[in-house]
Specification:
The chain is α/β, with parallel strands linked by helices and 161 residues long. Helices cover 42% and strands 19% of the residues. α3 (57-69) packs parallel to α4 (87-96).
Length: 161
């Protein structure tokens, strides 16, 4: 079997998961874990509906991938996510030994892959992954911007009523 690697195509799958999160009333973030060109884990943001602050798309995708492989070490796996991961998610990626992290939109408030800080560049930490930033950044950013614009408009209507 010949596997063709396409970061754009994998990010489009993550974007579809982000849209699912949005439909569920969550911040639209989607993530997948890929091993040897095959998607083995998927996640859509769900902290609101699950009442779980750790239910970020990345962590849900990591959990599913770990179950699939029967191992919490995800050696040789890649994680694709529509928004730059936070400190919590990067920490889980360290423990899972993710080899490559590909993200779309940068997160200037909580991004831990270069925007606020870059944990993968911290030499004192025991794991380092390849980081690829900005894959389909405009589309990923637009999904988030539209979501928050709608939220602000709804809040304005409620506050003016």
């Amino acid at each position: 079997m010949h596997v063709i690697r396409s970061d754009d195509n994998f990010m489009r799958v993550a974007l579809a998961l982000a849209r699912q999160a949005e439909l569920a009333g969550e911040v639209p973030v989607g993530a997948i874990v890929v091993k040897d060109g095959v998607i083995i884990g998927r996640g859509s943001n769900a902290p609101i509906n699950r009442h779980d602050p750790s239910a970020h798309a990345e962590l849900l995708a990591l959990r599913e991938a770990a179950q699939y492989l029967g191992n919490y070490r995800l050696i040789g796996c890649e994680l694709f996510v529509t928004l730059e991961p936070c400190v919590m998610c990067v920490g889980a990626m360290f423990h899972a030994r993710i080899a490559r992290v590909v993200f779309g939109a940068s997160d200037l408030k909580t991004g831990a892959c270069g925007s606020v800080l870059n944990l993968f560049a911290e030499q004192r930490l025991n794991h380092h992954a390849e980081i690829v930033a900005g894959v389909l950044a405009n589309e990923c950013g637009q999904v988030l911007s539209a979501f928050f614009a709608t939220r602000r408009a709804q809040k304005k209507i409620i506050n003016s009523a």
